[in-house]
């Protein structure tokens, strides 16, 4: 579906969760009720009889896919996900080296509660 939208094809999709994440009825494509054969047939007939009538839908589809699913957009989404999910773990020398260790972990910083915390820059 994304490839079709990216190339400017008119997409007719069923109202299901994965399709609704991308396709907006009347904005960047056309939606039909799931398994509604008459609705599907009518949308296809309308599109075939008036191929120029849906030009703005096709343009919006091209722009929308480029904005949300390009390599740059994907990398940005991945970066945001990593930033949201990464939490520095408080590490002590006892937790990592065993109870017999007595020196702080290299690069660890005292965090005020008696534990050392590793910080990365």
Plain-language structure description:
The chain has 121 residues and is mostly helical. It folds into two domains: 2-85, Glycogen Phosphorylase B (Rossmann fold); 90-121, no CATH class. Helices cover 47% and strands 10% of the residues. The protein has six helices and four strands, in the order H-E-H-E-H-H-H-H-E-E. It has a two-stranded parallel sheet. It has a two-stranded antiparallel ribbon with strand order 3-4. Helix 4 (55-69) crosses helix 5 (71-85). The longest helix is centred in the middle third of the chain and has 15 residues, at 55-69. It is elongated. The two termini are 41 Å apart.
The amount of helix comes to 40-55%
The main pleated sheet reads as: 2 strands, parallel
% residues in beta strands: 5-15%
Number of domains: 2
Per-chain topology:
Blueprint: H1 2-6, E1 12-14, H2 17-20, E2 30-32, H3 37-49, H4 55-69, H5 71-85, H6 93-97, E3 108-110, E4 116-118
Parallel strand pairs: 1-2
Antiparallel strand pairs: 3-4
Helix pairs in contact: 4-5
Short descriptors:
Rossmann fold, 6 helices, two-stranded parallel ribbon, 4 strands, mainly alpha, 2 domains
